[in-house]
Amino acid sequence: MRLYGLIGWPLGHSFSKKYFSEKFEREGIDNARYELFPLEKIADLPALFAQNPEIAGLNVTIPYKESVIPLLHELDETAAAVGAVNCIKVGENQQLKGYNSDAVGFEKSLLRWLAETDLRGLKGLILGTGGASKAVAFVLKKLGIPFKFVSRNPQGKNQISYEDLENDWKPSQPSTPYPSFSTILINATPLGTFPSVDAMPPVPLNFFTSGIFVYDLIYNPAETLLLREAKARGCTVKNGFEMLELQADAAWEIWQGDR
Description:
Layout lengths: L1 E7 L6 H12 L5 E7 L6 H7 L3 E6 L13 E2 L1 H6 L4 E4 L5 E4 L1 H13 L8 E6 L3 H12 L4 E4 L8 E2 L1 H6 L14 E6 L25 E4 L8 H8 L3 E3 L2 H16 L3
Parallel strand pairs: 1-2, 1-3, 4-6, 7-8, 7-10, 8-9, 10-11, 11-12
Antiparallel strand pairs: 3-5, 5-6
């Protein structure tokens, strides 16, 4: 019996277990199961493998997408470029190789969503600077979409504050750094995730205007407070459920490769 699972802390409602369990049943995969493995600290990962030698692959979620890397034996090219891992494949002698299927899922989902949009006219704003934001940044760079990170504590020339959104980055202002563009704002923070449904990143509400695209990587709830506020002000919005499905499918392909 091959065992797959999800590591992170804490692990509450999980898309992954339901998704893979239903997939196994639907496709008649009777030699595999999927479990949740809440790890209070990433240093517990070797013990998890020692206790469960049948583990063939793992998904990785908050807060370990970056801190898991030193415990791996190898990274694939995309994960190395992103600097974050959300998928681990277990090879011979429990050799661990890290991948980033978040980037795969986000790119496919974004291109479907913006199929009628000229990407050359887009500028990106990424909320957050953690592992998920790195996958988003990788994709935007690959697609040729310039971007800035938005952080409570900006560091470096490619990061700005939430206050900067209100003061300098409104698309309606001709004096902005991007005087003629369409903005795509991507929330890569966990703010607004169930059960904290009344939370949202501190984006000034007057930043939202018609013509802005807002993509929230959160899928639970389906419509976060951020998306509700943006939609009410004329923005085009999308949640992260499709990305989640696509990255899960990509993870399964990774685990099944070269078998």
